[in-house]
């Protein structure tokens, strides 16, 4: 009981979260609701081929889109609406923001290419 009285103030005044915002976004991207975003959008959001098949038009591919340059609003809309292929995830806006921030940080070098090219024009 004395130990609890000593630890309780430390737990109440502690500023640190169990996991960081980046780690939370990474965890959600890896497994938001049973299907990983990376399975279709790639490890960094670059998009990848989900499946290849043949039909009367020849070889076809179903590819996940590149989401690295999507805005937060685009991502919120994408996970909140129905698509032909992508499941609806029912993520909160805070969860989508964590994924968005994770991808922004993970793709910092890639995204800086576009920021630099837009600022020189």
Automatic annotation (TrEMBL):
| Cross-referenced Gene3D superfamilies | Cytochrome c-like domain
The protein's name in its UniProt record: Cytochrome c
Q: Which Pfam families match?
A: Cytochrom_C
Q: Which InterPro entries does the record match to this protein?
A: Cyt_c-like_dom, Cyt_c-like_dom_sf
Please state every residue range assigned to the domain named Cytochrome c: 20-107
Keywords recorded for this protein, A-Z: Heme, Iron, Metal-binding
